[in-house]
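Ticket #4471: structure output looks truncated?

Reporter: J.K.
Steps to reproduce: submitted the chain below (500 residues) through the standard prediction queue, then opened the result file.
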Amino acid sequence: MNPPQEQATLAGTSGTGAATTLKIFVGGRWVDSSAKTTAEVRNPATNGLLARVPMGGAEDVDRAVQAALKAYPAWRATPPVNRVRPMFKFRELLEKNFEEIARICTLEHGKTIEESRSSVRRAVDNVEVACGIPSLMQGASLEDVATGIDSQYFRQPMGVFAAITPFNFPAMVPMWFLPHAIACGNTFVLKPSERVPLSQMRMFELLHEAGFPDGVVNMVHGGKEAVDGILDHPGIQGVSFVGSSPVARYIYKRGAENGKRVQALGGAKNFVLVMPDADMARAATVSTESCFGCAGERCLANSVVLAVGEAYDAIRARLVDEARKIVVGDGVEGGVTMGPVISAAHREKVLDYIEKGIAEGATLALDGRAFKHPKHPDGYYLGPTIFTDVKPDMVIAREEIFGPVLCVMKADTFDAAVEIVKRHDLGNASSIFTSSGKYAREYRWRVEPSMLGVNIGVAAPMAFFPFGGAKGSFFGDLKAHGRDSIEFYTDKKVTITRWF
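Returned output as attached by the reporter:
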């Protein structure tokens, strides 16, 4: 298969046809990686080869960091009102190329075109927030902290920051970090997931076109060697990460040991609590959309419906009925509501979880294992799968499956349901469906997940609010985007002044 038309226009490539190899972006130029090996970027819907990505390491990282360090003094000295002018231009270019970026995202990831559009829109939202940095970055002052003495603090950039981003939202997640970091006056190195680098390649073209000075933004490719190169490099002040909890813990530990600021967003096992007084039709519709959107490959997917008392019998059949309406297929095609999972290996991993659920005694109420796409038999497809009679100690209830599998669990009382949520090691997001303000407020008060929805399926904070979980779902102090990002990417310098 030849690369998609969108990919053929990318500047950062070499070679032709299926042999197209991606470049890295260093110091304002697309250059060849020093990597000795490459990995394949494939379309999950068809298994077609889109490109080859270099598996770079510490040498590529160092080249990018040196370019960022060289650019930093002049970029830091640029007034914030001037720093955001290319950011405004970047936003215009994202809007102009919106559909192209969304289509690239669908081709490399497999999610539906509507899901890709939503992802790109969230990316734009974060760029818009970063455009307000002249206000967001302001410090504070107090006159006469003592007689004749004034005190104030300024927010100052710190140097080079880096981000290591996941496969599931290739257009959006890098923009949780990059716009805020550079608007604050830092320079930046991005390592996108080697599985889905193409949308970021296009967006880096647009960053360059927007007029950011050479070296302010840089991008490298690779796997663990590149990650370790970032975590170990003395020129990098801080690292942002999104991925699984075991890797997030590793990133946090190794980065912190090297004296870096780290925000590491990990995995999830999100519960949606359904009370007997909930609107069952809406709860079932929204819960299935939450679980099966993006084929379940998102950290905000509500993958466990925890029904209280009589709500269990009222909702479990509705969930199956709603899931049967899902149209599985190639995300670029109209009418498709769920695409494939990211890779053949990940499909096998999800299938293994389904087998574990069966072995543990859960009831397989909807079996998606046999789904085959008639036109794309080599695609990485699974149909929606639902387990009922799930118990809290089952593997499928404890571990993050990250696929189109929904577990339906019962709790006898509200208090029992709350305890199930609290006992889980992860705490990214949760939702409650109820018509009772008392139960909604009590749930918000008692459970630990940091992102909470009330009659909402996906509790995704807007770009001007912080994004991140609790317990084993987050490692660090300051979360992604919102005002937390300004705190993360700046240091506060306090001055105490007395004049004679």
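Triage note (M.O.): checked the attachment and the full token line is present. The chain is about 40% helix and 20% strand.
Status: closed, working as intended.
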